[in-house]
Amino acid sequence: MSPPAIALYDVVLFVHVIAVVAGFGVIFTYPMITAMAERRGAADRAFLFRMQNKVGDRMIIPSLVVIILAGIYLTIDRWDFGEPWIGATLLIALLLGALGGVFFSPNERRLAELSEQEASTGEAPGPEYASRLTRLKFAQRAGMGLVTLAVFLMITKPGA
Prior knowledge:
Number of helices: 5
Largest sheet: none
Radius of gyration: 19 Å
Number of domains: 1
C-alpha cells in the first residue's frame, strides 16, 4: 500500500502556519519578559530591547514575508481575494510589517540605548524612557490582538 499523496496546497498551508508560529509566537511572551527585566535593572532591560529588535529583524519580518507569500499562493489555489477574511488578514499582515519598521524597531533600539546609558551612568531613566516604554507596551498588546484576530479569521473563515 502506498502512502497517501500530499497536495502542494497542504505543504504550503503547513509552511504558512509554521511561519506564524515561528514569527509571532514569541511576541506573546514579551509582556512577561519585559516585567521581569524591569525588576532586574538597566543592563537587563537593554539586553531585552536589543533581543526584541533582533527577533523582529531576523524572525518576525522574514516570517511575515513567508506568511504573505504562502497566503497569496493559498488564495490563488483555493480561495478568492474578494473574501473579506482574506482581505482583513492581508491588511493585518501588512500593518504588522509596517509597525515593525516604523514603530517597533526604532523604539526598541532607542529604549536599549537609554537603558545602556542608565547602566553606565547610574542615572535613573528620564521621561523619554517612560513615554517610549508605555507606547511600546501598548503597541505590543495591540500587535498580539491583531495576530490573534488574524488567526481567528484564518481558522473560522467567516462568510466562506
